[in-house]
Known about the structure:
277 residues, alpha+beta, 2 domains, 36% strand
Amino acid sequence: MSKQIGDDEIRLIGQPGSHGWRPRWWLYVSLAAVVVGIAIWALASHARGGMATRADAAAEHTPDWLADADTTQPGIYHTSLTVDTTVLDIYSPVMATAELCLGAPDTADKGILMATLAADLRRDNGRIVGAFVLHGEPLSWGLSKRGYCAIIDGDVTIGVADNSPLFEQATETGGDFFRQYPAVDGGCAVRNNPENSAFRRALCSIDGRICIVASAGRMTMDAFACALVQAGVQDAVFLVGGSADGWYREYDGSVHRLGSTYVRNNRFVNYIVFRQQ
């Protein structure tokens, strides 16, 4: 018998029948299994920790805007949120329904909790830009801007589309509809061409709750849209911003102004109004 060992052979040292005997390769395999097991456990623990950290971070950017609000009576709950260095003023209607109206709402009407300019007006003829339906009556047609807000049977829907069946539905059911620049669509910021800086205002949806969000300082449309996403907004359309007319009623009944500028003597000046239920 040859004493040479081939490359594919293993020499067994010791007596196969003796107690406590194990081939040396078995020890190597066992040690390798232990090392691999420890590595897998460490990686899994790190991944779990990373997931928890990301979940905690996401939770920090999804504020409970009504945590300290009195939800037992109608009103506008106002709070401020800082996202990075951006300060956002958030106005959350409580026990209120939304509707559109033409002309400046009367601040003496105690049933109105908040009002702010909605759709833009054309510079040449003063008419409403884009499709607009007021209580089932179409007052303007056209796309112009892809963002839209529909108010049908008290439900507010914010979206982005070239053609929305909600325009026809609003017409058929006595609802409201208007178009504006889109800001956030499905949790993603929407880019817009205007790059000037101004005080911004938007109609937003977060976790199914409708609110108005305004910037405390001048921002581009894109920067404002990104700040809304960081604040947890899922869908949003811009409203007339800058020093545009707007106000809300404090819980004590007093009126707080957001802006005072609007086109006077124009019958197409329009507002989104939140009225006490």
